[in-house]
Each structure stands twice: as C-alpha cells, then as structure tokens.
Amino acid sequence: MNSAGPLSHRRRWSQGVVQQVSPAEVTDLGPGYLEPGLLPVDLLAKAYREALSEFGSAALAYGDDQGALPFRAAAARRAGCTEAQVLVTAGTSHALYLIATMFASKEDVVLVERYAYDLGRKILTDRGLRTRAVAMDADGMDPEALHDAIVAERGRVAFVYLNPTFHNPTGIVVPEARRRALLEVAARHGVLVVEDDAYADLTLDGVVPPSMAELAGYEGVIRLRTFSKTIAPGLRLGFLIADPRTVKRLVHHGLFASGGSANHVTSLAVATLLESGDYDRHLAWLRAQLKARRDALVGNLTGPFEFDVPAGGYFLWLRFAEEARVPAEVTVAAGARFGDGPGSAVRLAYSLNSPDRLAAAGRALAGSWIPSLERT
Amino acid sequence: MNSAGPLSHRRRWSQGVVQQVSPAEVTDLGPGYLEPGLLPVDLLAKAYREALSEFGSAALAYGDDQGALPFRAAAARRAGCTEAQVLVTAGTSHALYLIATMFASKEDVVLVERYAYDLGRKILTDRGLRTRAVAMDADGMDPEALHDAIVAERGRVAFVYLNPTFHNPTGIVVPEARRRALLEVAARHGVLVVEDDAYADLTLDGVVPPSMAELAGYEGVIRLRTFSKTIAPGLRLGFLIADPRTVKRLVHHGLFASGGSANHVTSLAVATLLESGDYDRHLAWLRAQLKARRDALVGNLTGPFEFDVPAGGYFLWLRFAEEARVPAEVTVAAGARFGDGPGSAVRLAYSLNSPDRLAAAGRALAGSWIPSLERT
Fold this sequence. Notes:
The structure is a homodimer.
Chain A: E1 27-28, H1 41-55, H2 69-79, E2 86-89, H3 92-102, E3 109-113, H4 118-126, E4 130-134, E5 136-137, E6 140-141, H5 143-152, E7 157-162, H6 176-189, E8 192-196, H7 212-215, E9 221-226, E10 238-241, H8 244-251, H9 254-259, H10 264-276, H11 278-298, E11 315-320, E12 330-331, E13 333-334, E14 344-349, H12 355-367
C-alpha cells in the first residue's frame, strides 16, 4: 500500500495546484511534505460529509471566534487543557504570523535555535522582526546561551521560538530536564516561549517528554499545533494552546470579531475525526508508514557523514566535515538554509517518497559524496 | 422554501458553534449574516466531494502559495483580470489584516467613510493604525474631503478603505463618476485604495458600475472579494485582486512561503462551483431570496424615519432626527457603531430572517418609535 512515489499520484499534482513539484526523475528529499499516497483523501471526503450532515448550516455560518466548541473540546481533551485555552488557527504559519504581529513590535528580537525552521524564521523577518540564533547542542538550545542572549538583547526580546520535539531540521528531541532548564530561564526573565509542536504526534520509537507548555502549566508558553503534518496541509488547520488570558487577548482582535473562527467548516470536519477515533487510527497507520520510510533510508545510508536516527517526525540530519556534493538524482535541503554551524549538513525528509525510492536514494547518497570528505 | 427563521435551523446553530445567537423570541436585524436556510449545505457537500475526487491528494497538499490555479483562473475570468492578479485569502477579514500588517506601519492612518464597516475598522485599529473618517453624502465619500484628509495627514496615510457597492452600513452604490473622482484624488496623491467589494454580486435591482479597481485598470487599488456573503462565511474563503507586482509582494511573504495557499482545499471546492455554473445558479436563487426579504421589510416599514431602498446587498439604513427606541422584539445595529453623523440611524439587515418575520419586524418597527421623533 502506498509504496509508489509521487509520480503515480501526479494527475493533478502539478505546478500551479500544489506548492512545489520536483522533476519526475529526481527523488526529492527536500521539502517537509507527505507523499501524496499518505494524504487521506477518502477520510477527508467522509469528514466533510459528516460535518455538513451533523452541523448543517451551522457548519457554514461564521464560526465561534475562538473556534467551534466541538473542535476545541476534542483538542483540549487530547492536550490536557481546557477549551478556554484553545484557539483555532489556519495552521502554524498563521499562528506564528498572528503572534509576530500581535505580540511583537517591529525591530523586536525573536530568539531561535542555531538551526531553526527556515520558513518560520522568514515569517518573523518578513514581519520586520530580527532573529538571533542561540547555541544548541544534541539536547537542544543551551539554557546558558539563552540567558546570555536575553541579557544581550535586554528589553528587545519579543519571544523565544522553539521546536523541541522532532526538531526541524535536526530531528532531535529535547529531554525533559533541558526543557525545564529552558523554561526556568525564560520565566526568570519574563520572556514568552512559543513552542512549535508540529511533529509531536509522529513518534516512531519510544515516547516523548511532555510538551514545554504542559511542563509550564501553559503559563508563559504558547504551544502551536497543526494537522498539516498528521492529516494534510491543504486543510490549513491548526490550533494554539495558551493560558486563557493570552487566548482572550488574541481572540478579541478585530480579525476574529470580524471573520469568526479562522477555519470553521474544516475544524468541524476534523472534529468528527477526532471524536470518532478515525484520527487516532490514521495516526497509527501514518506512523507505521513513516517508520518504514525512515528505516529504508537509514538502512541504506552509510558514508563519510554522521547522523542520529530520528525517533519521530519527518527529518534526518546528515553532518559532514566539509561541503558535500549531492548526486544529481537526489534533492536535499542544504543545512545552511536553517542556520550557520560548524562543518556542513543537509536535511533529508523521509516523508515524501516510498520506502523503495528512499532505499535507492540512501544508496545513491552513500556512494557519491566527494572523496576528499573526512568524518567530523 | 427557506421561509422559516433561524429557529427552525437551530439544532447545532448554538452558542459555541456559531459566532452569535439571538434569543428565540427576538427577530435579529443586527448582524450581516445569512439566514441558516440560505446557506447551501448540500451544494458544499457536493463541492468538497468533487474537489477531493478530481484533485485527489493534490487537494490536500500545500497549495500553490498564491492559490490553486483552477480557482484563480475561474476568479480571474469573472473579474476580467489575469490569474497573476489574484491571491487567495481566508476571507476579507484576513485580506484586510494582511494589508494592514504588510502595507502599513503602526500609527499610520487609514481613511474611511464617515460610516464604515465597524469590524473592518476594528481590524485596523487593533493592529495599531489610526482611522480617520472622511465626509460622505448620498453618493459616497466626498472627493474634496478625501483630498483634504490626505493633505491634513500628509505622509501618514497608508491607504483609503472604501466599500462602494451596496455599502455597509448605508446600502448605497457609489456612481461611476464619483468612483472616478475618488480614484483621481487617490492617484494624484499616490495613495493606495483598498476596495471592499463583498456585496457586489448581490444586485437586487438594476446594474452596478464597474468596481473601482476595474476603473483604475487594477493599478493603485486592491479589491477584496469574498464568498462569505454569497456562499457561506464558514468557508473562510475570499481573494484579492491587484496589480501583479502588489500580489507578488504579498505572496513572497514567509506566511505564504511556509503555509502555501491560505485555504487550499476549500478553494478547490469552490472552484468546482465556479466552473460548473452552480455558483451562478446559486447566486440567482440567493438574489431572489434576498429580494423577497428586502421587499417584505420595505413594504411594511413606514414611520417617522427616512430610508432609501437598497438596490442590493444585505442592509437598509434608517435615519431619524433624534435618538430612537427600538421595540423589544426586534434587534438592530445602532448607527453609531459605524461612525458619527448628524441625527440618528440604525442598520437593518434583511439577510437573516424569513420574509414573514421581516414583514412583522417592519410593522413592529413602524409602530413603535418614540412619539416625540420628528422627520429629518
């Protein structure tokens, strides 16, 4: 099932419909996309049908500004918070833009991990904010470096933007102790934490620590969740969780007073999936699919580089001592897109291709780095 | 068909699902909502089904940043522009927020009509902009007053926000000559015009002039369109039309680079309605429904007030010499919500109730203004 690559789903998977299309002959390990065959078309057809049948015209009206209660209730139950703490967003990009425009002033600083989601950073800088990279190690952002950065930018820090679980691009999971240490530093300085938690449902091995927001009792942390990585990005559906006061501050903005819920009918469609158990069944299936893909890539990847096997999410981070050349039949995301660091690195997404293609890509990558490369 | 009031559709039309619910015993002429029975539930169920069937996984992927081409092509054909000039938005509120955050700086001024959409103004002021009301008469904003306001606010004007067709709240249509005069003033000063064109498809009598954007050849004007008033607000789907350079400036923002199309799957669902002719058939039906509602209200509305019969849209503007008392069984929108002016006024929406209820509301209103009121 679903072992074919994007090519077999290409009928309307074309330029001008979807965001980006790679040439047919290239195995694209670049973007953080799901393989077309992993996008649950039938499940969504059913979800929209059921939402429109169950809610009728109420699914088509201006939705409750904060998001329809049936959706918020289901989201809150899963997150261990109250409905008052949930705000429906049109995905994480939308949520980050809202926070960057409503809770930050032009020329404020956002502290980010040394390697951080490039397009998330672009949302911040295009809004006129400055980002400052903070040193990280294999356990995530360094708390002392965070302290030093806050002190150095005294009064100008709008928030810290972190992605502690199955980090994009490095795939790491920040351990609980490190999460607590980072929270302690942020709280001590009264600096808001924005936790991008897009991948946390995609555990492939083991368990993950509680989110930073949960560890903080949802005080001083805004947690961003999305269905883009676990159902489908074309839905443009996510939600944020924060303390009720912060949610109120956002939802009282004219944007919500005027338009109502950020994505009403789609939130009701997804609410039917959350309530019926369909979402959990889909997630179990998707995890198995991603695990097969990760293992196919990892099992064929040997060469003059280092990597840690990611325990979840979409990404594997390959590190070299020097600049590397990638074989022409494979596309990867250059590490420099995400930030500067010692040596060289590339991000490989194992989400967009079949296990067979990933295995072949792994072999092609293993055999074709430039010979002068040395291990880091 | 659809002659029942909101009460008969109330099963899930309840607090926490939809934005606002009036008590059962009140005929609510306040909000610019469609009556639940006018929201095309079956049509949307079909549209989502067809979009998912036709586009498959491509409907669920990150959509083209500017919006899927099949949608943009259909929208452009109707507007007489090119696909490069169309950007998909999550409704007019979203579009206005984008323009207010991307094309204006905090403390800039937005010039608005003396009476203007209150929640649109709130989007601007909550974003930290200042609004300045410009005098209007029965033909819309006064061009000389616009000139004077631009001069008075020299260098601080981000844009002029206008709603020239079936104006919210007054229902007027700005004649073509006045549109040209306003455009001439804005162009002379190099000031951007944002044309909120939410109601233009809802002509009940006669024809409307070309949009200001069309008259300007889409130069210097951003036109905001939405399906919230003609299909359903819960879709959160609209689009803006501008010159290709302005569209590029918007679409190159990290927000779109990261999330892709602002509302991908729903734009493809609506594209099927635009292409099949279903949208036009629905529009013809909706116009007839609204016309019956407007006529039922107007035919029963006599009293110590003045009004012009609106030729389209949702709203009728009732003017008095003094403050008026409204009967308890009817809710209206106080004119002061939309701006200050001489005398007193209220906005009546004839979109949310059946003709029978509107006729009864008209009679109730006609009989119960305070006796001391005099005609203006």
